[in-house]
Input
Amino acid sequence: DAKTTQPNSMESNEEEPVHLPCNHSTISGTDYIHWYRQLPSQGPEYVIHGLTSNVNNRMASLAIAEDRKSSTLILHRATLRDAAVYYCIPGVSEKLVFGKGTKLTVNP
Amino acid sequence: GAVVSQHPSWVICKSGTSVKIECRSLDFQATTMFWYRQFPKQSLMLMATSNEGSKATYEQGVEKDKFLINHASLTLSTLTVTSAHPEDSSFYICSAPSGGGGRWYTQYFGPGTRLTVL
Output
C-alpha cells in the first residue's frame, strides 16, 4: 500500500474554498487516488477519485500532480456540513486502507 | 446511491459474552464486504475481508477465532465478537463495493456499530 502524508488538521471559513493536500510518493502506476470523508460518529463516504487527470463532481474537485506523487482535494465553497476527517487513499478500489487523514474544521 | 446498513447501531454487553453485528447491502449485491474497527480519535483499521461462499481473509494481527465472519448471502455479512472483553470496545464499520466499471469501485460504508464491553 502506498504511504500517504496529510496535514493532521486544517481550518476554513464557511463559503471559502478549501485545498486539502496529500502526498503519496510511493503510489504505483495502476493505483487510483481515492478521497473519502468521515463525519463525526458516522461511516466514511465517498468524495471523489481519479487516476491521472483532474476530476470534478458535485462535491469536490481533485487535482492530481503530473507525476502522481501528490494530489489536492478542493472544496469550492466550504459549508459547516463539510466538517469531517478527509482521507486520501491511493490503491485499489476494492480494498481501502485508511491513513490518519486531515480533520477539517469549518468556522461559521 | 447504494446503501449499506448495520445492526445494531450500538450494543452494550458483559465481558465474556459474544456479540453479533450484521452488515447488509440494501439495494445491491456484494460478493465481498470489509470490516473495519475504529478506536476513539483514531483512523479506521481494516480487520478482514468477508467473501461470499468462502472463508474470510483476515489482516495481520487480527484473531480469526475471536472475530468470526460469515458472509451468508450476497447481501449479508456478519461479524461475531466472541468472548468480548473491554479492550474490544470500539466502533465497528463495514463496507461493500459497488462497481463503477472496470477496476474502480465505490465503497459504501455502513453507519457503524458502537460496541461497549463492560
About this structure: The mean pLDDT of chain B is 93. The two ends of chain B are 37 Å apart (CA to CA).
